[in-house]
Every structure is written in C-alpha cells, then in structure tokens.
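Lab channel / #folding
Pinned by the channel admin:
"Please post every new chain as: sequence first, then the structure tokens as a reply. Keep commentary short and put observations after the output so the thread stays searchable."

First post following the new format, from NK:
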Amino acid sequence: MLLGIDPLLGPECLAALRAMGHGDSLVLADANFPASSSAQRLIRMEGASLLSALRAVLSVLPIDDFEPAPLSSMQVVGKPDAVPPILQDMQLLVDRMVPGAPRIVPVERFGFYELARRAYAIIATGERAFYGNLILRKGVIPPDLHPASPPHASIPRLHPTHRSQLMTVLKPLSQRKLGSSPLHVTALGVGTAPLGDLYQRVPERDAEEMLRSGYELGLRLFDTAPLYGSGLAEHRTGHELRQRPRDSFVLSSKVGRHYRVAPGHKDYGNWAGGLEFNEVLDYSYDGAMRSFEQSLLRLGLARIDVLLIHDVDVHTHKSRQEADRRFDQAMEGAYRALVELRRNGDVKAIGVGVNEADMCAKFARAGDFDCMLLAGRYTLLEQGALDEFLPLCEQKDIGVLAGGVYNSGILASGPGQGAKYNYAEAPAAVRDRVAKLDEVCRAHGVPLAAAAIQFPLAHPKVSSVVIGAISAAEIRQNFELMSQPIPPALWRDLKAQGLVRAEAPVPG
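Reply from TO:
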C-alpha cells in the first residue's frame, strides 16, 4: 500500500498509466465490452464499477487539454442523442475531478470499437450498466506542478446546470435528420474540396490524416465531388472510407460533370494540382448516370448516400441566361436520373449543391428534393436565404447542408488585408461589416470563427455545417470552434446592431 494511491490501482495498472505518453488513450470498459479481443494491453479490474475505476484513474492521470475531445463514450445504438444514466454519472465525476470539465463526446459504436483497438490499454471493469465505456486521452503534467501533487486539485467551477444557463454549447456529433430522407448526419460534416488541391497542393499524408482525424473525432458526414481536383478528392476520400464499416458514415457526392483523360493538357483553373482529366459539363440523364458511375469507381465504394446536382448557378455559368438554360437541362435530364436512382435504392437522398439561394429556391419549387447544399449564402455575414429558400425548406421538408460558412475565409481570418470573400479578395464594404461582427465577438470573448460555424445550425432545417480542411489540425480546430460555449448576449448584441437579421434563428 502507498499513501495517496487508490487501492484499485494495482502494479500492472500503475505501470501502464505511467508508461502512457501524451496523446495515448486508455479505455475503461464495462462487463459486456469485447476487451480481450480488442486490447493491446488488457488490465483486469473486474471487481470494480466503472465509476470507481474512473475515480481511481483520474486521481493520477492528467487529461489532455490540447485536444477538443479528450473523452469519448459509446453512442446509444439507434438513439444517437440519448444520454444513459451511466454517462450522466461519468460526466458529473469528470466535472468534479478534471480542470476545465471537458465534455464526454459520444462516438458511434463501430467508431468506438476502432478507437479502442488502437488504445494503449483497456481496463476491463465489472460494470453491468449498458454503455458503461469511456476512452480517455492522456495529457501532460506541467513543469511547475510537482508530480506528488494531485493534478486534479479542487478548482471552483459552475455546476453543469448553471453553466448551461450562461452559455450555449453546440455538439458537433449530435445527429440531425436530413430533410425527408431516412438519413441522419452529424452537425459538423467533413468537406473535401481542399483535398482536390484547391489553391494549394495537399500532400497525401496530410489528406489521409485529415480524413482519419475527422472520422476518429466521430464526424460521420463526408461530402465530395468529381470537380474537386478532377476526381482527386474522391480518390482520397474513398481510400480512407473504404477502411471503415460502410454503414457507419454518410457519403455525399455530385453530378453535372464527367471526365476525359487529358495527359499534359489539363485545364487547372483554381486547382493547384489534381488528376490529369478535363471536365465535360453535362446535366443530361446520360451525363448524370455516367458521372455517378465514375464517382463510384474513383471512390472504390458500391454506394453513395446523397447525390447532388452540382453548380447550376450564375457563379459557375457567368450569366443568368446560361444558368437558366442549364437549369432546364438539369430538370429534364439529371433530375430524372437522380429520381430513378433514389427509387431503385441506389442512393438515399437527392438534391442540389449550388452557391445561390435563389437557385436553390427555384429547384425546390420544381422538384421533389430531400436536401440541398448551399455554399456561402446562409452565414453570419449573409442571411438572404431567409427570404424564400429556407421557408420553402420548412414547407417541403428539405434538409440544408450549409457550406462556405466562412464566406471563403473572411469569417475565419478576420477583416485584414488580403482576406478572401466569395473566392476573391474581399471588398472594403465586406471587410468593414466583418470588422463590426468581429468587434462584437471580441467583446464577449468569442472567436469570430466560432460564431460563424455555429450560427447556421440554429435554423431548424440546417442539418449540418460542412467545412473543408487540409490537415488533422484544421479539422480538430473546426470541431473545437463548434464546441465553443457562446453567451446568448452575443447573439442579442449582433441583432441589436443590425449585423444579423432580427428574424434569424440563433443558438440557445
């Protein structure tokens, strides 16, 4: 026996906890968990409850405060928003013992099993309550804290109930229904346009780590398109997702372009790299079917869940007349193909992906769509979609995937010189408005990017915010920004100053 050491922590357990390095993970498993077949190192604590084991471990193990989600539980199967009693008890214990009281983030069951197999060790407890499983990521002990001092000294903090009254906290992993489709998607989705080498080349390793980190964080919506690097983003996305259980994620791609080989003659446009193919714009029935089949081959997957008609808008086609002509083609051709694929069960949801709210409204009136991806037009900076498109979504049960929530970067970078808006340098009027938004956010101690990523999700028809990233660090940062607590007073001040429309729903 030693003073200050919980008797549950035997020599084998203490040795494992000490040997773990920063970022290594530990699993506390209930009696039903397949610990023996999953563990790299198995430590038996079968006479202890989950809470007793957790209390003992937290008395000596620092929790990682570099990561946005250092604690993970297993999501309830079929009820992703359910909070079982054992999870409530775990969270209360964490609130008392861990500085900063990090939230325990539920992870889909198969994703949890995969994380457990990669953990440094698994402690098998005798816990009988269902979903009594927890993954902890080890942190560091700062140099000014003597190892003999308990790292979880008593720190005054608000009870969770009081904290929730003061702050609004969104959950990136909360599952939301996608319009009239049978699909549910996470509030934060993974966009892959940057993985097509948009504006800069992305090394293969960085692309793989971004996608892997997104999945391991628990994000379960991945959006891609043939356009992104002439198929490069689809190749990269498929390579990662083929290694995951197919029913554990929702995959979205698009039609409207198919590709021809063009060695040495590729038109790169905005793409710094990509594959040696040139696009053929084609919104016909046959063109959509060809695009769909090419995507399946590039992805190496037998199914795409969400299929969108891509880029039927003025931004892409340079004039209203040409955009309207392409709209007619799409409704006569590509739309028929998507309806057929949905009817046959080849896809589960159909929609459009465009840059303009009025074009979304035009499609919504003309067809039977499950969802639409609107890029850059329902953001902290712009709420024109409230005029017609979003009311139509409520009438017709159309789910919205909100893309471009940083308006091409200015809502993430701030209003400085060189800030990007709508894929170009931001004009002075836009920079001035963003400066005012930033000033209000700063007054409340909230990053502008956190307000930008959270704002669209307050609308009842926005199912997910889809954001691209080029690295694991960026996807983790997006996760953390969506988890950032925001005081309701910030939203009130933005409305009072006319920076957000009065009728716009806000978080809280």
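NK: The domain at 175-496 is CATH 3.20.20.100 (TIM Barrel).
TO: also worth noting, The chain has two domains: 11-162, 175-496.
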